[in-house]
Design a protein that fits this description.
Length: about 210
């Protein structure tokens, strides 16, 4: 499996326009942890418990069908003061789905996830899809990332997943983990240690901004 741990500058430059890859520097250094593909009735509570130990906030990009299947897990994210975002209803790959089908799938998920922030599954979104979302009224904010933990990669060891993050993360980084069965072995090892690493660095752990909130 081939992928970049830190998203190259050149890719960010040529990817369909005005996507958010990392956050600007602030007076108080901050890192933005994100979790894709949930919620999950067992894994999401594990994440919430560990975030609470460090008074950390995060953003959960949720699949609509999982929100529908596990409403209590979804509500627990919001009740803990975290942010949720749209990750399509059925985890569609934007490079394979037609624009109409893709937008309809996002709209279906939006009936369950009440804001206008979005992350494309697999990081794959076409130019027309991106344009339609950003031109909507109100517009969508499309969040990507600059550090990919690799927790979805079953060939990766938990220690390698941790190393991916702590060697690449920096203030302003948007980091991707997953609250999914596939990622569990690696995420459950790496997340507590990443939280401790950021704590030692005195980096605040924040949720991504939601325009209009």
């Amino acid at each position: 499996m081939s992928y970049w741990i830190r998203t190259p500058w050149l890719l960010r430059k040529f990817y369909p326009g005005r996507l958010v890859w990392r956050m600007p520097a602030e007076a108080e250094p901050a890192v933005y942890l994100t979790f894709d593909d949930g919620p999950h009735p067992r894994i999401t509570p594990f994440i919430l418990d560990h975030l609470a130990q460090y008074d950390a906030k995060a953003t959960f990009f949720c699949i609509g069908k999982n929100v529908k299947a596990y409403p209590a897990a979804y509500r627990s994210i919001l009740d803990a003061g975290h942010t949720t975002g749209n990750h399509t209803q059925h985890h569609l790959n934007g490079w394979k789905a037609g624009t109409g089908d893709y937008i309809r799938d996002i709209t279906e998920a939006a009936g369950l996830i009440d804001n206008r922030i979005f992350r494309p599954p697999y990081g794959r979104i076409g130019l027309s899809q991106s344009h339609m979302l950003r031109s909507a009224d109100p517009p969508w904010t499309i969040y990507m990332w600059d550090v990919l933990s690799g927790d979805f990669d079953t060939a990766l060891s938990p220690a390698q997943c941790l190393e991916n993050v702590i060697t690449k993360v920096r203030p302003g980084s948007v980091v991707v983990f997953h609250d999914s069965e596939k990622a569990w072995d690696r995420m459950s090892y790496a997340l507590p240690r990443v939280l401790e690493f950021c704590h030692r660095k005195n980096w605040k752990l924040k949720a991504l901004p939601v325009p209009g909130q």
